[in-house]
């Protein structure tokens, strides 16, 4: 009897070690699903709270690893043709914010179209070739090495797009927007009280429209860049480090209290439109 009890105790100890090593508590619910897909699959994710991390591999498969702690929610991953849908479902109305949390690690083929909503937590997507739509309430959005059209919308989270290529639309109410080391021919960034930073190549014929109500708008340029700029802050400041040539004509009719800047740098091949109500606009030389 003592020998049998010792064996049970030892087995329980090994189980605890395995659970600790995996980073999952004993009460966690975990699923792993893998789906064969064709070229250019579509993957949709709907989650209320938690971490969503999407990366790529060279397999023609979508792999979903999800875990959640509460039995009041369930995770569902299904396939319909070349579409994979991932969702977290709330099973009862009596839930707390901690109950609805679910975390995802999703691996997709490189050429994949993504549509994702995650209210709170975080979103991280990297090395995807394809159109991408992300929507959150409070979750920050981090995008790296994305090739394709990007539409990132959030209420209170920050948006970071690093080394991205393709048209970009990013909006937030109170969060910051940062576009770093990217090559986009068209950028539209809007925030109400957050800051906007554009530290990327300004491509010939590119259009870069940055708008906010308050906060800071900053554009960094290199000596080889070529752009014309229109910068207006109605109640704020405009600061400039570029040696601009004056345009041939200015058709704007602004109040006397507004601060503005119009000019051409080098040949003026890209177009910068920077607008704020009470924020500061800065055009700075890249160090």
For the secondary structure, the number of strands is 22
Structural class, from helix and strand content?
mainly beta
Mean pLDDT: 89
Helix percentage range: under 10%
Helical stretch tally: 1
Instruction: Tell me the count of domains.
Output: 2
Radius of gyration: 24 Å
Low-confidence stretches: 1-9, 11-27
Question: What is the subunit organization of this protein?
Answer: single chain
Order of helices and strands: HEEEEEEEEEEEEEEEEEEEEEE
* Beta-strand proportion: over 45%
Using the alpha-carbon principal axes, give the shape.
elongated
Note the main sheet: 22 strands, mixed
Distance between the termini: 74 Å
What does this 3D model show about the protein?
With 287 residues, this protein is mostly beta strands. The protein folds into two domains: 31-139, no CATH class; 157-287, no CATH class. The protein contains one helix and 22 strands. It has one helix spanning 2-22, and strands at residues 29-36, 42-57, 61-68, 73-80, 83-90, 102-109, 113-126, 132-136, 141-144, 150-154, 159-162, 168-172, 177-180, 186-191, 196-199, 207-212, 216-221, 227-233, 237-240, 259-265, 270-276, 280-285. The protein has a 22-stranded mixed sheet that branches. Strand 4 and strand 5 form a beta hairpin. It is elongated and about 65 Å long. Mean pLDDT is 89; it is low at 1-9 and 11-27.
């Amino acid at each position: 009897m003592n020998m049998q009890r010792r064996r049970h105790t030892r087995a329980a100890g090994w189980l605890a070690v395995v659970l600790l090593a995996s980073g999952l508590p004993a009460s966690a619910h975990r699923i792993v699903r893998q789906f064969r897909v064709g070229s250019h699959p579509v993957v949709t994710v709907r989650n209320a709270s938690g971490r969503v991390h999407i990366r790529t591999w060279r397999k023609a498969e979508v792999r979903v690893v999800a875990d959640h702690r509460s039995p009041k929610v369930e995770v569902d991953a299904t396939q319909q043709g070349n579409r994979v849908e991932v969702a977290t479902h709330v099973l009862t109305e009596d839930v707390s914010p901690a109950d609805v949390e679910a975390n995802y690690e999703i691996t997709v083929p490189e050429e994949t179209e993504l549509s994702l909503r995650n209210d709170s937590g975080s979103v991280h997507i990297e090395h995807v070739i394809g159109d991408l739509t992300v929507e959150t309430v409070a979750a920050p959005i981090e995008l790296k090495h994305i090739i394709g059209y990007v539409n990132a919308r959030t209420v209170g989270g920050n948006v970071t797009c690093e080394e991205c290529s393709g048209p970009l639309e990013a909006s937030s109410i109170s969060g910051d927007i940062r576009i770093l080391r990217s090559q986009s021919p068209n950028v539209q960034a809007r925030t109400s009280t957050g800051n906007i930073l554009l530290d990327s190549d300004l491509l010939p014929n590119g259009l870069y429209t940055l708008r906010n109500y308050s906060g800071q708008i900053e554009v960094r340029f290199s000596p080889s860049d070529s752009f014309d700029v229109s910068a207006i802050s109605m109640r704020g400041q405009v600061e400039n480090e570029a040696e601009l040539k004056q345009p041939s004509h200015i058709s704007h009719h602004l109040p006397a209290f507004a601060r503005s800047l119009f000019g051409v740098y080098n040949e003026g091949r890209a177009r910068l439109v920077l607008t704020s109500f009470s924020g500061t606009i800065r055009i700075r030389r890249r160090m």
